[in-house]
Amino acid sequence: MGLSLYVDAARFRANQHRILATLPEVVPVAKGNGYGLGNRRLADEARSLGVDTLAIGTYAEVDEVADTFPGSLLVLSPWRAFEAPTEPNPRLIHTIGRVSDLEGLLARDPEARFVLERLTSMVRHGFTPRELREAGDFLRSHEGGARFEGIAFHLPMGGASHLSEVQRLMTDAVAAGLPPTTIWVSHLTAAELAQLARAWPDYTIRPRIGTDLWLGDRGAFTVKATVLDSHHVERGALFGYRGRAAPKTGTILVVSGGTAHGIGLEAPTGANTIKARAGAIARGGLDAAGFVRSPYSIGGKQRLFAEPPHMQASMLFVPQGSAVPDIGDEIDVRVRYTATAFDRVVIA
Q1: In sequence order, what E strands does 187-320 have?
Q2: pLDDT tens for residues 187-246?
Q3: Is residue 1 part of a domain?
Q4: How far is CA 320 from the centre of its chain?
Q5: Of 12, 128, 152, 166, which has the fewest beta carbons less than 10 angstroms from its beta carbon?
Q6: Is there a contact between 135 and 118 (Cβ–Cβ < 8 Å)?
């Protein structure tokens, strides 16, 4: 049965509708691995919500969702001539962060739809104040049916509120002479979005939401791996690719889920707190000793990897005296949803 994600449909969709009721202008985000659920499935969920726009990460993801979601597709990655489609597509809303790209887009498609992204404290993509004024000057001189869809801000997630940053950056949009249309923004709370709407009543506020919309109720999700094989080993017995010796008598349990699924692959977290750094040091000590904690749990107890995960399976060590599940049983797995590829997703 592989690595499976089970989703409580009622709780999953109740969370979506709760956010939609609070933020009716929400723009769902479907990108990357689709938050573990898959972009096509999220596109179908967005269609069921009745929203008019879906945000995707890259142009390569357009084909994943275009047949499922009928509305507009906001591409979050900045437009680049070498990557964007050459044929005009009226459903696409492009993200522009450089004057040269704005010129290139409108040369290719004079009636293109686009948002202008202002550089934030993320320092990832976007216009500086001077460049935004240049973009405004260019648009006023442009002859054609170009559709300016608003100003976009991609904000950091951590730390204090970034509402004041948006307020400050909005003055740059006004100074650039851009018409008041829409503010597309990420990572503000509902209360902050309400404050932003009161401060800029001439604008429509469109929050782009992914994690909170799809994964907001973590209790709706259960991840299970299947026990594929089980082998009793005596202390000192060799096993695995690397011929490691069993530290004591017990069981080598072979379970579904490996590096191809994202098991055992950990993205850097920044470890910016004392607790996080202590955890990193502890994990490093276990690794150095050859005992690496796995994300798999049996009977509520987290088990150790017997050796590093294989591509599609992992080997666990269960010491003698502990309960050993049967072949075909499922065991719990803790994963990072945005970095995991499941063999199947069951929403019921």
Answers
A1: 204-209, 221-233, 238-239, 244-245, 250-256, 292-298, 301-305, 313-319
A2: 999 999 999 999 999 999 999 999 999 999 999 999 999 999 999 999 999 999 989 999
A3: no
A4: 40
A5: 128
A6: no
Question: Please, which residues have CB within 8 angstroms of residue 268's CB and are 6 or more apart in sequence?
Answer: none
Give the domain-ending residue among 162, 194, 216. 216
Amino acid present at 207: P
> Is residue 2 situated within a structural domain?
no
Q: Which CATH number belongs to the domain containing residue 22 in this structure?
A: 3.20.20.10
Both 15 and 85 in one domain: the answer is: yes
Same domain for 26 and 41, yes or no, is: yes
| Domain termination site, one of 216, 234, 249 | 216
Distance of alpha carbon 14 from alpha carbon 301, whole angstroms: 31
Assess contact for 190 and 18: CB atoms under 8 A.
no
Q: How far is CA 74 from CA 58, 101, 141, 221, in A?
A: 9, 16, 25, 28
Domain tally, the chain: 2
Q: What is the DSSP string of 37-77?
A: T-HHHHHHHHHHHT-SEEEES-GGGHHHHTTT--SEEEEEE
Same domain? 185 vs 281 = no
- Let me know whether 208 and 238 are in one domain: no
- The sign one gets for the Cα dihedral 255, 258, 263, 268 is positive
Domain that holds residue 116: 8-216
Segments in the chain below pLDDT 50 = 278-286, 288-289
- Residue matched to tokens 């509120």: 161
Whole-model pTM: value is: 0.92
- CA–CA separation, 125 vs 119, rounded Å? 6
Give the largest CA-CA distance in the chain. 80
| 9: Cα separation from own chain's centroid | 20
